[in-house]
Amino acid sequence: MGFFNWFSKKEENNKTTTSQNIEEKYQNILTQLEKHKKTAYLPVVENNPNSFSTHSKYGGYPYLRNENDWPICENCKLHMSLFLQLNLSELPIKKDEGLLQLFYCTNQEQDCESKLEAFFHFSKATACRKINIENHSAEIKPNNITIFKEKRIVDWQPKDDYPHFEDYAIHDLLINLDDDVYDLLDERQAG
Predict the structure, then answer these.
(1) Could you confirm whether domain 49-149 is CATH 2.30.33.40?
(2) Do 106 and 144 form a contact (C-beta atoms < 8 A)?
(3) Helix (H, G, I), strand (E, B) or coil at 167
(4) What is the pLDDT of residue 2?
(5) Among residues 94, 69, 70, which one has the least CA distance to residue 82?
């Protein structure tokens, strides 16, 4: 065996040892994080025609209690786009009833996002509300520019959810992450 063969063999052994060390560190960190693990639920969606319904969904038309129920932007006076509607009785952990609706003004011609500082909490270019389901939804022709294609949430996929490294201090976790271990946690979606 020549010097170069010996050197490349040694380098291969170091890679294996390094991979084993990273895996061991990963497993040790996962053990520490295990007691802080929670279950998160990821939405499973299907394309759906835009509808005034009580279903959980991204985009489309909102459930409306009456013809004047669609939030209007203070700046451009147009209907805000529905971003998300959650029917609380359809959630995997049912604790409440009604709808949670999130709206956002997407009118770029009037620059509502900047003028109303939509990037700050409680902006007038956004609306978040919890409403009760009363009867069938009112149906109106929206006057806004962007209606996102409706994606109905048809199911919820459970997933283990571990604290992100930025939250370790909140949980009194004293973990020093190597870049390789951080990358592995990210790749395996474990925190």
Answers:
(1) no
(2) yes
(3) helix
(4) 53
(5) 70
d(CA 113, CA 109): 10
User: Are 161 and 39 spatial neighbours (Cβ–Cβ below 8 Å)?
Assistant: yes
> Assign residue 70 a region: left if phi > 0, alpha if psi is -120 to 50, beta otherwise?
beta
Residues 6+ apart with CB under 8 A from 118: 104, 105, 112, 125, 126
Structure tokens at 98: 């009604």
Name the residue among 179, 161, 158 with its Cα closest to residue 33. Answer: 161
Report the C-alpha gap between 44 and 90 in whole angstroms.
Answer: 13
Instruction: Delimit the CATH 2.30.320.10 region(s) of the chain.
Output: 49-149
Beta bridge partners of 160: 39
pTM of the model: 0.78
Residue 5 to residue 64: CA distance in whole angstroms: 74
φ/ψ of residue 90, rounded to 5: -95, -5
12-71 residue pLDDT tens: 444 454 878 888 988 888 888 899 899 999 999 999 999 999 999 999 999 999 999 999
